[in-house]
Design goal:
The protein is of the alpha+beta class. The chain contains 4 helices and 18 strands.
Length: 344
């Protein structure tokens, strides 16, 4: 790695024999002697003194040849060579050595993964774009009054949802599509049950006045884990808010949280039924549920198992409470009415 301090020996080895050669050895910086003790930095000989001899490539390694050669790499051409001790003069090369596979491991620090949200395109002429200035969100709630929810399952994302204690409800905000109708519903109980449609948009509305009486109950039980679904004209009969559960493995729903005003805490679901990614085909406002993200497969199994156990226990508690109430009702002493029979 650096020019040897043992000048005569190094001159013979480097200048006289292998010109412009880099040695794969070094001298300990705290060595008492500065004229010897060159040590290997890796491989089976790590820490040991170099004896200036090199063995042939092992079978299966690059250019296995000759009985005794120096292992070298021509750093000008980037090709492996194994020059014999008698034919290497004047060649530019680098001394190297091999480990057997698995002898040493290298720790590599990867940069953090950068998951970008699903891209959104501008809508066609004559339609309103979902997040552009003057578009659907801007007119209804204001672009500064919403926060985009992540689309990818790292932490909280818009793929999986949990119901609150109150009803999960939705209303249609907009529909810009040539299809006559767009259905919307849920995959309840951790997205394992069949799709259940809750409402159908049959016209192309755009509501500028958010009225409470336009909300529809989606029929989700309190505290249930579920995902949203939509009728699709692209991949299968429905698409899921969980991306990898779609047969075409596409993200069909993007989400924003409403921050202030009458709809604060509600969410905007914008759906794409084909591939143009304008996400204005069906736009809804939902309330009564929050996004919780999507666990990895093993975590998903543990989560779903724990959820089912908890659900069974809750049902047992409910049944026991019902029986206790019935028993208490039977134990109540009802006072007898005064007798209407008189004696003479």
């Amino acid at each position: 790695m650096s020019y040897p301090l043992e000048v005569a020996r190094s001159h013979t080895f480097i200048s006289g024999s292998w010109q412009q050669t880099w040695l794969g050895a070094y001298q300990y910086s705290n060595s008492c002697s500065v004229t010897d003790s060159w040590s290997w930095v890796t491989g089976e000989e790590v820490g040991s003194l170099s004896d200036w001899s090199f063995t042939n490539f092992d079978a299966g390694q690059p250019e296995h040849d000759h009985e005794r050669v120096a292992r070298a790499l021509n750093f000008t051409g980037g090709k492996w060579h194994d020059f014999s001790v008698s034919d290497h003069e004047g060649t530019v090369k680098t001394v190297v050595e091999f480990d057997t596979i698995g002898d040493h491991f290298v720790d590599i620090d990867l940069p953090p993964l950068n998951f970008t949200n699903t891209p959104i395109n501008l809508a066609s002429i004559g339609e309103l774009s979902i997040e552009a200035s003057g578009g659907i969100i801007d007119q209804l709630f204001g672009l500064a009054n919403v926060r985009r929810i992540d689309d990818r399952p790292l932490g909280v994302s818009d793929q999986l949802w949990v119901a609150d204690a109150s009803a999960v409800e939705a209303r249609v905000l907009a529909k810009f599509t040539a299809y006559a109708s767009e259905g919307f519903g849920v995959f309840e109980n951790i997205a394992s049950d069949p799709y259940r449609e809750a409402l159908v948009a049959t016209s192309n509305p755009f509501y500028t006045d958010p009225l409470d009486d336009l909300f529809t109950d989606l029929g989700v039980s309190p505290f249930d884990i579920f995902s949203y679904g939509m009728e699709s004209n692209l991949c299968g009969s429905q698409v899921n808010s969980i991306e990898n559960r779609n047969s075409c493995v596409r993200d069909h729903m993007v989400t924003w949280e409403i921050l202030n005003g009458q709809s604060a805490g509600n969410f905007i679901l914008a759906w794409e039924d084909l591939t143009d990614n304008d996400f204005n085909d069906l736009v809804l406002e939902v309330r009564g549920a929050k996004p919780v993200g999507t666990p990895e497969p093993v975590a998903w199994l543990l989560f779903s198992t724990g959820y089912l156990i908890l659900r069974r226990r809750l049902r047992k508690v409910e049944k026991q409470a019902c029986r206790d109430a019935q028993d208490a009702k039977r134990d109540v002493q009802v006072p007898l009415l005064p007798s209407l029979i008189t004696t003479v």
